[in-house]
Amino acid sequence: MxxxxxxxxxxxxxxxxxxxxxxxxxxHQPPKRTWYHTTFFNLTIVATCAFIAPGLWAAINGLGAGxxxxxxxxxxxxxxxxxxxxxxxxxxxxxxxxxxxxxxxxSGMLGFPIYAASLYTHVKYGNKWFLMVACVVDGVFSGVxxxxxxxxxxxxxxxxxxxxxxxxxxxxxxxxxxxxxxVSLGVNVKSDVRGHISxxxxxxxxxxxxxxxxxxxxxSPPGKVQRSDQTEVKIVLxxxxxVELLAMWKLVCRKEILLLTPMMFQSVxxxxxxxxxxxxxxxxxxxxxxxxxxSTCVIFSNFLLGFFLDWQRLTVNARAxxxxxxxxxxxxxxxxxxxxxxxRYEARDARPTFDWVDHGFGQAVCVxxxxxxGFNLMYDYxxxxxxxxxxxxxxxxxxxxxIRGTESCGQAISYGINSINQNRFPLSGAVAxxxxxxxxxxxxxxxxxxxxxxxxxxxxHAIVQxxxxxxxxxxxxxxxxxxxxxxxxxATDEQKRE
Length: 498
Description:
Elements: H1 4-21, H2 24-27, H3 39-62, H4 71-99, H5 101-107, H6 111-125, H7 129-155, H8 162-188, H9 200-209, H10 212-216, H11 241-252, H12 255-267, H13 271-281, H14 284-309, H15 316-346, H16 361-389, H17 396-418, H18 427-449, E1 454-455, E2 458-459, H19 469-481, H20 483-497
Antiparallel strand pairs: 1-2
Helix pairs in contact: 3-8, 3-9, 4-5, 4-7, 4-11, 4-17, 5-7, 6-7, 6-9, 7-17, 8-14, 8-16, 12-16, 12-17, 12-18, 13-16, 13-17, 14-16, 15-16, 15-18, 19-20
């Protein structure tokens, strides 16, 4: 009998250990994550590259016409970049399927320092052929960068943190523009006349952008990313070009994507206008100051929008509608203001040039600052909106290709319009074109936005992606109205099956 007692105790301990291993605490113990595979680290890599490459690119162009005195040729050259980006985005997903997301991202960083070097030679020596060649090179490589960057910022973050990460990414791009503006202001602070910026400014930008490929190499492949909620990053790409193009066409023909296409096209259309406006009406140091101040305002406003878009006290639908209404009302008022200001300056006998000590500088510079703020708010909102409409994260690269390709098409046309001599086509005409496209995208977008976040008649609080719609609706019903409503939904599903 006494010999049996240890066996019973051992059996009891073994049973207890077995039950402990099956307990919810043990089963749901989150595995330890490797810091360089976390979402935050990888989004920081993308954000750093956004600062180095498009951030400093925008800093140069934010000074007006790439910092040159005459915006005409630089705007025409920039339109070449965006035409090539559009073509690359159509076929780029097949390239990524072959070389991998990380190495495609690395290669996308190669064109930016070449573009900055071409601007240096253009401003210092009047060289035009190298600028055009550099725009071709940059158009190809930056097309790959736009595609992969957009895919990462949409696919890698957890759904409930997407708004904040989008704000973080865009803020890093703007920090590049802000620091670029500060550097340019320091170098050009004594230049109180209209003209090109100091050539030493370009040398600083070239040195920083040359680091881009090395930073990009630290990005984790999608399969190694470790999210905080333990979900996987799913990116699926067939390696057959024919299959990929058919999949792309199917996605393009989706009702929501077709209705949002005008919004994608228009979201970046104003960039060429406010860059040309800055070069046209301000002294060199005022252009740098305007770029610096505008960038600071953008960072603040984008983080406000990002936190609002992730605020789960409101439903996804309420957040989508409120943000859309506020941003588009602000943009409509801004285009009217820009039209009034441009018409006023064009009516003068001589074109005004404002320095920061001149009367009327504040009124004039507000057009540029508010335009840059509105541009980035629309950009942030567009990516969040498309991320909510997308139902499968496996299609994220194709979706990024559609967004970036449509953007590039809009920018190619916009920079082409702003390359026309202002004696033939004044800036007020560019504002009118911008306003026309802006008005045209409101109604189609509204049809999508008013239905975002509604699953089987239920307004959900979390973005639905990779889940069954019925499961998402039932979870929302349990959260809000208890199990009775969930039971009704379950009964409805049963009837549909029968």
